[in-house]
Design goal:
Helix content: 40-55%
Largest sheet: 5 strands, mixed
Radius of gyration: 44 Å
């Protein structure tokens, strides 16, 4: 009769036994003493300590059985009337073998004797577990040497998110690597005096792995000491035992900062190409509309001159060609300038006095302003100096003020107000008029597009606002408009990098 306690599923354990130094090893007193103690505890005439080795049991130690015949220990036990067997487990879940006591007569063990056998079996498990670091030191050192030389962040967590291992890729400083063992990210953040936000995020990711049993990945951004942003692709995956119980969580990270920068550059290039493609279409439409008409007129006037025999008539026709040619040259120059702005990559930023630049623009538009009884008021006290290419600022002032003149309201004298506001390293310039205004419900998405005109005006080409937006964006700024019909318009431009370092 064989009695034994319930055991976990039997595992094939030769590899563990080799690491523990059990197979093909000499007899050891520590195991012999436990077997003898089992005999004394239960008054049994025989006891064995056996380990599971593939398809057979390997007897490591025995009492009351001929030592020379250990290989046949199991066979000898069959001749006994009563046999009691306790499982020997490793790490509480892996069955390695049994501690067995045998009686020649039918015998019932007392509760105390049964409990004693269990304690001896558990003690054997502890003994084996303590042997593993010694027996497996070379293997452990081998794997750690590999992990420590991999240029990737590798860490191991216990089931409570405490660090068990961190390689130099994760933490370069050796003292910090020693410090973090047994601690979590919150303690590390306190020790390094860092924002706990990353620790909170990592804990949430760890908890998700623990709750779902699934591998997860995410991107993590960290600010370095010099203020740069470093991006890592993080991944955590669970390690379970044979019963599916979580044993540890392994995490690793890869620095993908360069990849993210390339992706962002590629995205910006694609966006720029899309904008340029749309602008090219608009540009072709403007060329078709604004250049074809004058060219057709020139062709007709040339034909009329050729057919005319009257010198006076020929002179009249030639005089009519002059404004057509001037319009053609003006349109062509504006189109060429818009192309040049988009192609300029090395722009020189000038330190400009806004009052001086505005005065020059007002002088150039003096007669146009006088015709509409225009008045200009400027307040640049908050930011009197602007860092910008001079030709761009002159063009911006000219386009916005001439735009206000062209679309003034016949119901009132034109009033234009200019204002600057300083915001950290930025300056916002506003140009506000009291003219006809723009219906943004209809034209919001076309305000700055090439060739778009919102009021009937002879000679309007729809290039001024397009040119202004192109120049503003060329230096990293932004432009927007607020307007209502017959309520005037307020154009706002945000200039960035407004310091002497911009030069």
């Amino acid at each position: 009769m064989i009695n034994q306690s319930p055991t976990p599923d039997q595992a094939n354990t030769p590899a563990i036994l080799h690491l523990l130094g059990i197979i093909d090893a000499e007899p050891e007193d520590e195991f012999d003493n436990i077997v003898r103690l089992a005999c004394l505890l239960t008054a049994a005439p025989a006891a064995t300590l056996t380990f599971i080795n593939q398809d057979r049991n390997l007897c490591k130690s025995a009492a009351g059985i001929d030592i020379a015949d250990l290989e046949r220990a199991d066979q000898q036990l069959k001749s006994y009337s009563s046999v009691y067997r306790e499982p020997i487990k490793f790490n509480e879940n892996l069955l390695l073998g049994h501690l067995t006591v045998a009686f020649t007569q039918p015998t019932d063990l007392t509760t105390g004797q049964m409990e004693g056998l269990k304690l001896l079996s558990k003690q054997l498990g502890y003994l084996l577990q303590m042997r593993l670091p010694v027996a497996n030191r070379s293997v452990r050192d081998f794997y750690e040497s590999i992990l420590n030389n991999i240029p990737t962040d590798i860490v191991v967590f216990d089931t409570e998110h405490r660090y068990l291992f961190a390689n130099p890729g994760a933490i370069k400083d050796e003292e910090l690597r020693k410090f973090i063992i047994g601690k979590d990210d919150f303690e590390y953040a306190v020790y390094r005096k860092r924002d706990p936000a990353i620790a909170i995020e990592r804990r949430a990711q760890f908890q998700q792995v623990k709750d779902t049993g699934n591998t997860i990945s995410w991107e993590e951004n960290q600010k370095t000491a010099d203020g740069n942003i470093v991006t890592h692709l993080r991944r955590m995956f669970p390690v379970n035992d044979d019963q599916g119980k979580l044993v540890m969580v392994i995490g690793f990270g890869i620095d993908i900062t360069e990849r993210k920068e390339l992706e962002n550059k590629q995205r910006k290039i694609m966006e720029q190409l899309a904008v340029q493609h749309k602008q090219s279409i608009d540009f072709c439409n403007v060329v078709s509309h604004n250049l074809r008409g004058p060219l057709i007129n020139l062709g007709m006037l040339t034909e009329f001159i050729r057919e005319s025999v009257d010198p006076g008539e020929q002179q009249l026709l030639i005089s009519k060609m002059e404004p057509v040619i001037d319009n053609l040259k003006s349109t062509f120059n504006e189109l060429v300038e818009s192309i040049q702005v988009r192609q300029e990559t090395d722009l020189k930023m000038d330190e400009l006095n806004l009052n001086a630049c505005l005065s020059e623009t007002v002088r150039n538009l003096f007669f146009e302003l006088k015709k509409v009884d225009g008045n200009i008021h400027a307040d640049f006290s908050d930011a009197p100096i602007l860092y910008c290419p001079q030709k761009y600022l002159s063009s911006i002032f000219h386009n916005l003020i001439s735009n206000a003149i062209h679309y003034h309201s016949p119901e009132r004298p034109l009033s234009i107000k200019l204002l600057t506001q300083a915001k950290k390293n930025k300056i916002v310039l506003t140009v506000q008029d009291n003219g006809q205004g723009i219906d943004l419900l209809k034209h919001k998405h076309n305000i700055f597009k090439i060739g778009k005109v919102f009021h009937r005006r002879p000679g309007a080409k729809g290039l001024g606002l397009f040119m202004t937006k192109t120049q503003v964006e060329a230096i990293g700024g932004t432009i927007w408009v607020d307007s209502e019909p017959d309520q005037g318009a307020r154009f706002s431009i945000e200039f960035v990098n407004q310091s002497s370092e911009a030069l």
